[in-house]
């Protein structure tokens, strides 16, 4: 027993020592952080970290000790994704640290040398989330707030505006009392005063605010008022919160343009009554985008009652301007009966609603809009309708939009229920040719949309238009905005570019499943494409900027893509990697197909490429046989040291061969040489779906110097024949000094050119550069008579001109 007691005494002593050390350490840490310069810097860094978000950053420079009662900082700077947008300099705070024990921030005086606000902060998702859940962690009392220089930057006010502010603040989560005076530094008569006392527990509300500024003041610049008039605004409210009346007036250049009277009453049973009456010609006070809505005289007459926070009864709800009439009456309740009716109509023309966008503005011309809510809150009948004459954005225009949505069983408490929805449009027009082909009005969407607190479900929605039709079914997560949908769409060939549309003669069907995720991620699965020209399927996904795709397909009849071809070809492709460095592997195979009557066997075309803006690379090969004659094609594209080249170009199709190599300049202009020997042109023509015969051999030398590309071509053959056209012994010796401007020297000759019964012989076409023009001369004989022509060629910016235009054929001579 004595040993146990001795052990307990030792253990207790050790615990007391540890607690003592922790207490002393805590006191030392408190003194270090609150009363020393290094501790002040550490405390400031912790405050910066707590107050900042990834795209809204706070910096405190040269802080003094925090708990001495006299805190100062050289600067407090606010950053966003675009840089500094506000800075407070020479901050001084006289406060009582001991008041923190009463959860109160108590400052006798806060002052600063200057506050500069360069621009409004860029939007921040993190900041919005913090502000939406904000509550005061401490009561705040500031006896004197003094900012002798506030600079509003020109990005906000058009030019730098210098203001001063003085006031007091006493705020808790239950009440607030505050008084401020803001004046222009150089024009003290231009000022704004604000005096507010809001104390619901004490049944007290006081509001007195006034703004008076001369012409060209800060407010007129902020609101972009025409001619920057003198502005005078006054708000006054008196009486207890349970029976409070207030009024507001506004005047420009001394002329009253707005007068409003309001009243708030709170009955003993908790019923709140609100009324607002008045109006005026105050369109100039609105932002430029909303001025058309409030043109002329505006009349406001509102009387409503709020019961328990879940029921609103509108006795009178009328807003009338020179351009629109808005009315509402009845009851909307999340618990009881409903009979709300609301409508918006244009008076003499559609309501002209506009909204500024980064690339211009959006404009919606509204003929009418109506909403009605009838019946019990759990099973309400809800109808929404809108008639829009036109909706315009910088990217295009949609005419004659009509919206109708109706629900016979809508739950207002949970905001859930099924809507039968129809949206139809008239004509459409879009700036992008690709989008304009794809979307052709009239368009109609018809289906059932089901709302719940978590999702919006469309199951299904039918799409009809002049170019595309089909069905869509799926869900939208209302919290994450992620979509999961299955689609089956049908399109006419006209949605494709002209060069492709001509190769499709049946409807194009595409089906699959689409899922979207955060950060732009998406996944396409069970993808199927069917048409008379091509069939394909596979998957595509984009996750964290990495693309992965696997596609396979077949061309049932290559004759739709290649003239005079028959049979099928199969293909597959795999794509992977970041969007800026995509790796692509593709393969095309065919066996048994025919080209211009020649049989294609065991054809395999492969491509292995990396698409990188700075260092692209690729390897292309083709093997097989055409009419029993071997096909062997290879080409490499490589990049090294910022330069791109094609070191290998080799092609053998039967006895026809082509070899060469090309370097590409930084702007992808060529430099290299190609040699070719084509003893059987018919085989090459068949690859392009054409019938021809003959031979040709020669070379091409390509050079780019100082951005100018030149080409030298030398070629000859015994003859070429296609259909009833025959060319005997063609030769070419051409030097193009500048490919961009058609600066050509050299000649093209042929012993005979015959087209059916027409025959020309000893043909020589010569080119000769003359300054910015290239002259040409044609000599020979036509049916035994001399033939000649003279003229010149100019670059694409200027039209070709003939200096000796040919005249109509005459017997025995053509000139």
In which range does the helix fraction lie? 10-25%
- What is the number of strand segments? 51
Taking the sheet with the most strands, its summary is: 51 strands, mixed
Radius of gyration: 40 Å
Query: In terms of per-residue confidence, which ranges show pLDDT below 50 for 5 or more consecutive residues?
Result: 11-35, 127-134, 798-815
Describe the structure.
By secondary structure, the chain is mainly beta. The protein has a 51-stranded mixed β-sheet that branches. The longest helix is centred in the N-terminal third of the chain and has 34 residues, at 2-35. The radius of gyration is 40 Å and the shape is elongated. The N and C termini lie far apart (137 Å). The model is unreliable at 11-35, 127-134 and 798-815 (pLDDT under 50).
